[in-house]
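During the second year of the project, the team shifted from modelling isolated chains to modelling whole assemblies. The rationale, set out in the original proposal, was that interfaces cannot be judged from single-chain predictions alone. As a representative example for this report, we include one of the complexes processed in the last quarter. Its constituent sequences, exactly as entered into the pipeline, are reproduced here:
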Amino acid sequence: MELAKSAYLTKEDHAPTQPKLLTHPTVKAGLMGWLTTVDHKRIGFLYGFFALFFFLVGGFEALLIRTQLMVPNNDVLTAQQYNTLFTMHGTTMIFLAVMPLSSAFFNFIMPLQIGARDVAFPRLNAFSLWMFVAGAIILNIGWFLPQATHGAPDGGWFGYAPLTSKTYIPKHSIDYWVMGLQLLGVASIAASLNFIVTIINMRAPGMTMMRLPVFSWMTLITSFLIILSFPAITIALVELMMDRQFGTSFFEVSNGGMPILWQHLFWVFGHPEVYILILPAMGIISEILPTFSRKPLFGYPIVVFSGAAIGFLGFAVWSHHMFTTGMGTVATAAFALATMAIAVPTGVKIFNWIGTLWGGHLQMRTPMMFALGFVWMFMIGGFSGVMHAAAPADAQQQDSYFVIAHFHYVLIGGSLFALLAGIHYWFPLMFGKKVSEFWGKLSFWVIFVGFNVTFFPMHFLGLNGMPRRTFTYDPNLGWNFPNLLATVGSYVLGIGIFIYFVVMVYTFFKGQRVGRDIWDGRTLEWSLPNPPPEYNYRVTPTVHARDAWWYEKNHREETEKEQEAHAQEEEAHGGIHMPFGSIWPLITSIGVLIGAIGVSALDAGKDPKLAVCLVGGAVMFIGIYFWSLEGNEGYHIHLDKDGNVVREEHS
Amino acid sequence: MFKFLPTLVRWSRIPLVLAGTALLAGCEYNFWRMDGHQSTIAVEGPVAREQLQVFYVTVWVTLVIFVLVGGVLAYATLKFRARNDADEHAEPPSQSHGNPLIELSLIGASVLALVIIAIPTLRGIWYTYDVPEADKANAYEITAHGFQWWFKFEYPAEQAAGENNTKMTLVTGNELVIPAGRPVRVHLRTVDVIHSFWVPKLAGKVDMIPNRANHLWMQADKPGYFWGQCAEYCGDSHAVMRFRVIALGPRDFNDWLEQQLQTGRTVQGNVASADQPRAQFASLRTFKQNEAGISDRFDLQPLEAWKAKQAPEANEDPRLVARGRELFSQKQCNGCHTIRGHGAGGITGPDLTHVGSRTTIAAGLIENTPEQLQRWIHNPSAVKPGNKMAVGYIQQKITLTPEDEVALVAYLLSLK
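Output from the structure prediction step:
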């Protein structure tokens, strides 16, 4: 990323009288530049970087799982290792890969799409990022500690009480899971509030809500889902933490605790979480299909509205994860019907995507291939979802491989395909380079074939009675061949992902340079040079139509005149205002990290647990204190007509 | 440099497709037929059948929609695809924004399709929840308890003979015997974490949750031997927490009950001294981790195998059995296990009063043969990681010589 070339200062620009501690970091390059950055694009890049790293970790865990299940009665892994791996595979993929990768796009693309220069709270944005990293560290720290007393989390990604209580898993693995998820929750909620405020307040003039690009709409809806659903799991995790650390009895059966309570709290979060994972993907698809069909999204209002409807209904279906918990007839029926209802807005989206293709000029570029792959795979995943909604059928499918097939079709064929499509789609904008079509398409086909060979047989495994989360199976149950096939498929999928990433890294360093707007895009971000400068827009754009950039391209003269007028106005107001970098979000997160290690890794009797927690709290407090003293001033950038930086003014 | 690759990729599709077809055609017979022991398709009871019918409705409805929508999608993709440079650089098509009429009618159609699924779903929810009114009086009641990692089955209506002419509720472990052709109501309880009771051929699963009184009902059409498994992750050995359901005709069921209600079988004989056991198997061979412990005969005629297991072992050595009985209390096995009439009353582990008549041990994991039984008591945690019997060995400092193991095996297998 070459965002920092313009660090240009003269002596008189320096702020004269700030105390040393409160000097704003002005460095933009090097490690300190990255650690203190508040630039939404750099933060987005870092989110993407960490997310892709953990995506590869989660993928490696999946390959180990598949290797163990390749043949019956295999002994590559012990039961304990297997249970840890499936727990961490799920937790990693959901919280450390797909969510932050979506967040990377929210950060990088959404402000560009709405014509903003940054998010509403840039330092809070940096805090979200570092809290996410802290959460990821806590979740994974157990791998590197003694397995008998620590170990990575092994209670399942759903952590059902009372298995997670100290009675049944006394070691620290569950504490890491609890604290890791808590930190990730803080990160997600802070980021979501930021996005909501940004979208509501910082849209360019003329960008009404019904002109907002669908991806930004989905960012908004997803952010609302996050701030409404994460409190539920936060409460559940606090209760579990209390049970484990202070001997309370929320889920402790011997003292009258209620394990079923955990399931309700977890799924009140857990089901909206599914839409937190899929709605951004739907947003990406709704950007890519129109671009490569060269016509507007079919039925924009209905696509947006159905996204919102999915968000609302997503809160009314959580108990379909609990059809086998003996809820009784009426509750089961209600949740079954609500779940079926959610298929309607989902189906509507698919109809509208097909409507977008209809009559278009489809350009089969790599992002389009992934997007079409998404539509097909998501359709299959959606149909098996309807099968689960029929509660009596679900009694057989619940916790079987049929469910595994279903949600991997939705999460890989759905979320992941869309995210991979999004990386291809926005890569030229982010880095000014374009991935080779041949290698891009090759990776798509290998991933597509590998994915289907892995997960399609799992439908049959599930119907043939193979339960999930089992480290071994006997050879006489008819499961041998589908398991072998799935394992071979997973290796093919692994190779496809490997090709994808090698090509990406190669392109990043040595790829072919491309100019502005190589896809002939429709939304505002494509009006920017690539990579986009730190201030994004030389002149805040004025929006006249839903596909704002498409409109600009077709009304050049009018737009240019308007922009010149606005440029002069902005210059008269003192140039482009940019926020200073700050180290305090990072310091605050480090404080939280230290505290979380104190809570999760140490034993009160023999370790200085309280001391470590207090040190962490103190560091966090110092971070917040100086953060608040720092104030919110920034500096101004003055540009000439071609967008070159004339000077920067530091107040 | 890689100019040849696109052509290569294009041509490599042909053998790929051929290989795929061959693979699928020649594969294991029951992949597509799905008639394995835990099949939800080859069902053998009314509850599972109802659930299957609902499933088929969803399959047909979604299949029709998939063909229609997928067909349109495929057609649109092929028809409107840019085929050449001219297409790529053509003027953009008409910038149309949508058509409310089409959208509303598609929404209407989806709602209709869902109604088709909803009706049998609602009927199924009520039908599968509890035994139908008309049959309720006829229902046989069982209470199943989940343990880490095995099942205890209680027969509340049956009073079995205990020590000194006392009576106690009949209890068995891991193999549930039920009357065929009669509804069975299973009350689901757990003593520790959440488990789930699942016999796919008879009924979908219902969870065993602490502080919650769940139940399910099932019915076997005819006598049979069914595979079941815990379906909720419950810790280390969740994967090997299995069980069996044996459905018997009325007369067989009564015979079985009568046998079960008696105390443990006693074989007359003197104790063999430690130096002269007749070893049935000189030394235990080494087993691989997770090695299968089930022989093929179960797949062929499992119910017959079960019936054969009800009769005393052919080459029973009374002296060895007596020695085993002695060891059972010496080694404190009775601290956890009950053997009615033999002075063993522990309740932490499965009731072993008639363990010799079961086809499997270690919760349906391995076959109840002398060799597998010795494998189990020799080192339980090698068979079932983390299980409580291994913990008991360590806590009580229990060690067994090969001779002890052989004697214990002979004793346990004599308990018919």
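The two ends of chain B are 76 Å apart (CA to CA). Chain B has two domains: 21-78+102-251, 263-416.
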